[in-house]
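Technical note accompanying the year-one report. For the benefit of new consortium partners, we illustrate the data format agreed upon in the data management plan: each record pairs a sequence with a structure-token string. No post-processing was applied to the example shown here.
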Amino acid sequence: MRSKRLIILFSILAFAALFIVLNSIIFHIRDYDANCLNENSGNGARPNTGVALNTALHNRVTDSAKANISGNIFFLNVKKAVEKIQAENPNILIYGIERGFPARVTIHYVKQFEYGYYRSGNDYYRLDKDLRVIEKPDRAPDLIKITVDNNSQVTLPLKIGDSLSTDKGIAEKMISEALDALERMGYEDLYAVGLIDSIDARTETGYEGLTIKTRSGYLEEQRAKGGVTILLEGGDRIAEKLNRALSVLQQGETNRSGGTITVYYNPETGTYPTYYLPP
């Protein structure tokens, strides 16, 4: 009777050991892939390099996944993996990590375009639309110049992955909303950079808003207009105001070059009065 019990016990232990071995082999992560959810976005501005840029980014994300994800697929710490991969690739935003059984993981991400830069002394910071620092170049890049008036204090220094922020929390909200609006209106990547020269946030109480200056010419695909100053009065409804301003900028009755477009929101009528003052 005792030997029978021992046989059963050893059988159970052997089965458990076999299960652990097979589990560690079969479900040990060994296949890695990456999926860019906005792969075709922005390539129109770089028709000859879009595919190469996407391939290089795909390879970097995949290599980062290989370096930071290992072990059993059932015990994958997704949150920790996302933090590590995103820290190594500040120009992406990870939407999720998909488990593909038995041993495959796929990183789903969107690429974050560089829109602007902020300067503090001799330090430069390349920023995406959420004002996250993607890179710290040695000189001013050919991007939208981001400035904040003296009524707000920018939190410095910044490291890669940090977001530009101020003590009031007003400037960054307005600027991010403007950049996001540009992207949603189709001015993404170099199209936005080709249109906008600078964005200055005004944060004095009662006079909040943005001063946006367009470049003297768009990209070749756009009509050559520019050198116009856009005043978005008030710190709210930035996207709607910018949409109105760009509509006026592109109206065909006059080739707007120079001058000022002013937009504000009238809460009593629910409208956005917009004025163009020639130079």
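Partners are asked to follow this layout when depositing records. The helical segments are 2-26, 50-68, 78-88, 171-184, 190-195, 238-249.
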